[in-house]
Amino acid sequence: MNIRLLLTFMVACLPFFTAFADNVDEIKAQINKVKKSSSYIYAESTAPTEADARSYAESKLYEEINAWVATQKKLKKSSNFVVNNRKELWTMLSMPRGSNMYRSFIYVKKKDIIPAENAVVIANESLPPVEESIQSQLPEVVSQIAACTKYGDMAEKIQQMKTEGKIKSYGRYASLSNPDKYYLAIYNREGKVVTVLTPGPDRRNVKTNKPDGVKNYSGCGAIGFEL
Which of 29, 80, 181, 211 could form a disulfide with 6 if both were Cys (CB 3.0 to 4.6 A apart)? Predict the structure, then answer.
């Protein structure tokens, strides 16, 4: 039985590594806690890139959800479902010869899987738009990255633009030899892209065009990218 999932997620992602405060042991403890509980459905994958690890884990999660739904009398007759509050944990695994692999662990509470017959997704149009005058002054690459709202989408966009030659280099904040040369895409522990800061010692917020800096985002992570 292959139940189709309505791809509507209230996503809460936890980055595998933050530039200012990271704790791999804490993430592993959370993963173990989820695995030991019968309240969750989860899936995990390891791959050479973050994007691949996430994609594989998501596919496995959908399969696990379908298998579980097929055993539930109140759910198995529904053709569509909404999966709320899906969460994601990241860790980086050191491999022989200095290479690294990325581990994605995605999970959801069983009670957050609900039928969605005739569901309609409505965009929140009350959110304040980015000022067009500010966006028009930005390079197109920066505008596209700043438009990302989720960590995974932002990281994938940066990787894609590096492959296309639109970005010269990128890296996590802690690995940058000279951070002032880089735009910074800031994200929080929930996996939300908070903002993008311009390069230089006197940074500005690209969405507000006001002075801003990394000190205002304690506990967050950042990916720097150079055009």
Answer: 80
